[in-house]
Amino acid sequence: MKSADSIKELKTMYQKGIAYMEEKNYPDAIEVFEEILKKSKNYPNVADKMSEAKSAYKQQLMSQADEKINSKDYSGALEILEKEENYFTDDSTFSSKITEVKNNVKNTALSEAESAFSTEGYQKSITIIETAISFCGENEELTNALNKYKAYVPVNIVDIDPSETSRNNKVEKGETGVDNTNQTHKKNLYAFHRLYSQDDAYAVYPLMGKYDTLTFEAYRSNYDTSTDESITIKIFGDNTELQSIVIDKGFNPNQYSIDISGVQKLKIVFESYDTNVFKQFDKLPGELANVIVSKTK
């Protein structure tokens, strides 16, 4: 049998819970009612009031979340919903609402990225999709969209591992090269010529038809200004010659752009010449730089 003091305490707590409900302070009301039930599980009306408070609190949260959604404050909506999702463990309404919010974010991002692609370019689209992924988590549609826009990111050929290279004379890559006008070129390709080797230096890069444009710079290196020899650099797409450049002593640095639509394998060749002219391991006087493959269509 409960003491008078205990009964009085429970009554006071109950009245406090009711007051919280009138103030629409449902979390505190629920907390008070839970405490009463721990002390007296059969206290009159408490179970009903607990259910009423939870229902009202749920409606309040949903209303707040909807306001955030309507103002496109999806982060705010998700914060409200996720904070209380575990509180209503037997109610799927919150998880369904969270899914709805994430779908809104996903669909908005897909639409905005598509629009931005035509007006601001692939980088803006990538940023939009990456932001959506950080909000929604892994999502197949967003991942596919991200891959689609990332396909437009230009790639320097030095960052692609060759699938095939020549055995003797090798195509090398460097950070910088200097031409015969003392201008510096970044990410250069060059070749060394071994004594008694008449093999061309070449490298084959697997493009797998992902790009449609090749751009690069060709120049005469200032590595050895004493030689008058010329060098021929050729570029092939799937065994078809796309460009041939003869770099002689008077060659001025030049930029090139080549259509490589559908090319699976790109081959860059530094042609060999008379081995009596050059010393062992001599660097060839012609070089390429900023060799970029890109998707523009």
Features:
297 residues; alpha+beta; Jelly Rolls; 7-stranded antiparallel β-sheet; 5-stranded antiparallel β-sheet; 7 helices; 12 strands; rod-shaped
How would you sum up this structure, described in words?
This protein has a domain at 155-294: NPCBM/NEW2 domain (Jelly Rolls, Sandwich), CATH 2.60.120. 41% of the residues lie in helices and 25% in strands. It is built from 7 helices and 12 strands. Strands 1, 3, 4, 6, 9, 11 and 12 form a 7-stranded antiparallel β-sheet that branches. It has a 5-stranded antiparallel β-sheet with strand order 2-5-10-7-8, with no helix packed on it. A hairpin with a 5-residue loop joins strand 3 and strand 4 (184-193). Helix 3 (46-70) runs antiparallel to helix 4. It is rod-shaped, with a radius of gyration of 35 Å. The protein starts with a helix and ends with a strand.
Compact summary:
With 297 residues, this protein is an alpha+beta fold. 41% of the residues lie in helices and 25% in strands. The chain has a domain at 155-294: NPCBM/NEW2 domain (Jelly Rolls, Sandwich), CATH 2.60.120.1060.
Please state the CA-atom Rg, rounded to the nearest Å: 35 Å
Number of strands: 12
- For the record, the CATH class of the domain at 155-294 is Mainly Beta
N→C terminal distance: 84 Å
Main β-sheet description = 7 strands, antiparallel
Give the number of helices: 7
Task: Give the secondary structure arrangement, pairings included.
Elements: H1 4-22, H2 26-39, H3 46-70, H4 74-85, H5 93-119, H6 122-136, H7 140-150, E1 155-156, E2 164-165, E3 171-178, E4 184-193, E5 201-206, E6 213-220, E7 231-237, E8 240-247, E9 254-259, E10 265-270, E11 282-283, E12 286-294
Antiparallel strand pairs: 1-12, 2-5, 3-4, 4-11, 4-12, 5-10, 6-9, 6-12, 7-8, 7-10
